[in-house]
Amino acid sequence: MDSVVEALRNKIGQDSVLTGEPMSGHTTFRTGGPADIFIMPGCAEDVKTSIQILKDFEVPFMVIGNGSNLLVSDKGIRGAVIQIGGKMSGVEVDGENVYAEGGVLLAALSAKVAENALSGLEFASGIPGTIGGAVTMNAGAYGGEMRDVLVSVEVLTKDLEIKTIPVKDLELSYRHSILPTEGYILLRATLKLINGNPEAIRSRLTELSEQRREKQPLQYPSAGSTFKRPEGYFAGKLIQDAGLKGKSIGGAQVSEKHAGFVINTGKATTQDILDLITFCQKTVHEKFGVWLETEVKIVGEF
Prior knowledge:
The chain is an alpha+beta fold. Helices cover about 30% and strands about 25% of the residues. The protein has three domains: about 80 residues, Uridine Diphospho-n-acetylenolpyruvylglucosamine Reductase, domain 2, CATH 3.30.43.10; about 130 residues, 2-Layer Sandwich (Uridine Diphospho-n-acetylenolpyruvylglucosamine Reductase, domain 3), CATH 3.30.465.10; about 60 residues, UDP-N-acetylenolpyruvoylglucosamine reductase, C-terminal domain (Uridine Diphospho-n-acetylenolpyruvylglucosamine Reductase, domain 1), CATH 3.90.78. The strands form six sheets. Strands 6-7-13-11-12 form a five-stranded antiparallel sheet. A four-stranded mixed sheet has the order 1-2-5-3. Strands 15-16-17 form a three-stranded antiparallel sheet. α1 packs antiparallel against α2. The longest helix has 19 residues. The model has no long low-confidence stretch (mean pLDDT about 95).
């Protein structure tokens, strides 16, 4: 492991490669054990170089953004984690076109375009992830989705080639795109927004922020909605109707404010959260015959 770390640090910089890094600091659930190697590339070339080195040394790796849709094992992640994050968060605005690097947070991007009186991305202002993660799962809220504003993406392929893909070829649907199945890593996204009234945009952002505060347990670590919406149902209502609102296992709890959220009340382990998720799935299935699929991605050594 020392030789691969040395090779990585020689190529992309000493401070860009950490070892034994606790994943609890890189997920919104605030749980998860250490990653053997944690890489923070500063540009597309760094991503490409890192992956080539990891392949040469036969080290398994995964790519993350803000960790807002991840539940990482208490034992951590063997191999390497590449975080497309703050070092790759540049944004350029050219008229109604917006060019965003994969690591920019949606909250920051929404604020930036609002400053430029551009409308269309207000729905995403409270989604706690990066543009890379948002496109990968076609994130949406309050009636909007990424596919509504996306023009194209620049990705790194499994063959380490940089490729531009128009939105029509991304097969964007509910919480789905071709990026994970094709092994594509999003480096940059191009959005097309519309010129709007600055006051109206600010007003809408404030309105959505107030709605989230009223309805969601924002004061606790979570990964947002824990479960996908089952066809014909709402996950939160099923969980509430099953009598599980407020149900706790260890430090994990079904939020009393919104039953669709499993939260970390302060000292939850990943295992607590997993046990509670499983309990909700089984109880809802027994009562209503509906199996809840997780929206969060469960990763690491189990």
